[in-house]
Amino acid sequence: MSTSQSDVLIIGGGVAGLTLALTLAERFHVVLVRPAQDDQGASRWAQGGIAAVLSPDDNLEAHVQDTLIAGDGLCDERAVRFTVENGPAAIHWLIDNGVPFTPDTAPDARYAYHLTREGGHNARRIIHADDATGKAVVETLNRQASAHPHITQRDDVSVIDLLSDDNGACCGAHAINAIGNAHTLLASHTILATGGASGLYQHTTTPTPNSGEGMMMAASLGATLMNLEFQQFHPTCLYDPEGPAFLISEAVRGEGGKLLNEVGERFMPAVDARAELAPRDIVARAIDAEIQQSSRGHVWLDIRHLGAEAIHHHFPTIFAHCVSRGMDITRDPIPVVPAAHYSCGGVATDLCGRTNVTGLYAIGEVACTGLHGANRMASNSLLECLVFARSCAATLLATPPNATTHALASSNVTRLRADASFDRVALAELRATMRATMSQHVAIVRRIEGLEVASHQLATLETQLLALDPESLHPESRRFWHSLRLARLTVLAAQQRHESRGLHYSPDWSHHAKTPRPSRLTLRDIQQ
Fold first, then answer.
1. Residue 296, Cβ neighbours under 10 Å: how many?
2. For residue 263, what are the contacts with CB-CB under 8 A and spacing of at least 6?
3. Going by DSSP bridges, is the β-strand pair 367-368/360-362 parallel, antiparallel, or unpaired?
4. Does residue 280 have an active-site annotation?
5. Phi-psi category of 256—alpha, beta or left, where left has phi over 0 and alpha has psi -120 to 50?
6. What whole-number percentage of the chain has pLDDT above 70?
7. Where is the segment annotated Disordered (predicted)?
8. Where are the alpha helices (DSSP H) in 307-416?
9. Domains, the chain, with CATH or none
10. Which of 34, 280, 435, 501 is catalytic?
11. pLDDT for res 226
12. Per mean pLDDT, which range of 82-91, 151-160, 396-405, 410-419 is the poorest?
């Protein structure tokens, strides 16, 4: 087993992790743990863009109000204003760092870069790099991080658990490499940027989604988790049961895409005055209702009326991908279905990314800042990554130099063994059962009876997992152990919310509570 020490350990190499690393590296020695396969993180798959007030025709208060409305009464207004107000500076930082956003070449352009509009926004405020914004941002920042002398990138290990000292403070992480060798990564400051929990479900918008492992690693140290019941289902994932997941960006509807039912009729105008540009929870529920009444298993997203030239110009990545799957979207509508996309809940933090565990921070989708409330508005996700990474960096940079110490991990940490004996096929079956249970009972529409069934089935899976690997010594069983416990907490959060709000919709609790409150859970809530 090897041991290393650093000032700052960042777990996750998406937009949040890379932004933080680059902002801190002039002062601190940073270790950044990120996947060896660059396409695994959700940031890279973000198509639409980043929401910020950039046009002279837009204003901060309008972005604040749009976000509060989408969040359905559960946003922390202080977090919303903080994010929106710091958004333009974060975008300019990306521009200064060379991110190739799409320019606006129109003679009467009001801003140098093209801005599109997406669901929930009442103005064009989405800056983008064609329809592959996440890829452009990640590649640009990663090139700089790879060349920085104070940033050590570790793509040879994956983090399995966080470490604490004898006082309960986080002091780094326990990692393992591909051949099972253990590595102890000690650090004065540990930051989770591990993404969300869409992988708890069968159908997602990314090929290799996280399943909330980072959230549960934090909870294992005593961190509070908040709003886990608010899992966003993107309304339009490409429907192709034989192929990998692929997101059809919100921007497609922002530029005029129309949703059609199986007989070719629009249905959104009858559901909401904003039609296809209603917030995601409304559109996803409407699509789900249409699917339940149809025989196809999907609806259609039609952009043929935009013309081939506009489609090629605005959506080259989507067009090319659909062609590779045998679909010409200039001639035929796109078959789409809702899929798990984004976790509005996560590790509770303040505006600097601090958790309630000393030494541990969380930024990006793994965190719950209060920005999204009960439903994230389109393209506020990468904005949150940028703003809170920069805020976290400012806090750490303000730490007095003599306050940086290297504590030792507690000696009672569980040491994993890649050679631990267990049945991999059985583990895969347990994971598949968990995802099927979550998709059936804890997805777009939840019912009291279904949540009770899910709670029982997940508890049974936990018993079966312990029979496979009693101490969760193998890295794969430990990862699933984290995911399974997060699934149980998600069900509990849904059971405790006796109302329908935002992404949590139940016909059994169809009303809005008069005084909505965020949900807060800890690991103790499923250990009692």
1. 13
2. none
3. unpaired
4. yes
5. left
6. 93
7. 502-528
8. 308-314, 316-324, 380-397
9. 2-230+344-403 (3.50.50.60), 235-339 (3.90.700.10), 424-511 (1.20.58.100)
10. 280
11. 98
12. 410-419
